[in-house]
Design a protein that fits this description.
single chain, mainly alpha
Length: 171
Amino acid sequence: MAEVASAARRPTRLSATVQWVLLGLLALSFVSGLALWQAAPDATKNDPQSFFSETPSNGKSGWLTAARLVHGAMNPLLCAMFGWLWQTHLSGGWRMRANVWSGVPLAALFAGLILTGLFLYYPELIGASHDPAARQTLIRWHVWLGLALPAVLVGHLLGAWCWAKNLQKSD
């Protein structure tokens, strides 16, 4: 009976299916982002624009194009996921004051990734169309935020686990 009571007191808990879908999307985005990040120095050594063109001149066009397509395809899915989580999971967690210490940084990190990705794709939105230094700064921030994502996500999951255990003890 305590398990039912705990579940009733955890309306923001994501189902196992939703958790696996979210983790799968994040994993695809993370792995494709790592591939792009690792390819960037080689791809930009001779021709900085080749990395962003359709046919890179670095001889790695097959897997690089695939990584770029996967990473780009994840953008609308992850934006939709973030919006859905904001409406359901984040707002409910905020009202309950559950796991806020890790949820706020995770939400800020997601927002930062979305914004830096948006500005990399549409640099004219911030007046950086012809500014290589601004583009490099955006890339650096996007990479740093992306590399921080697994640690912050694990922190949030551990926090949720601890919160649930404490809730179970109080039942």
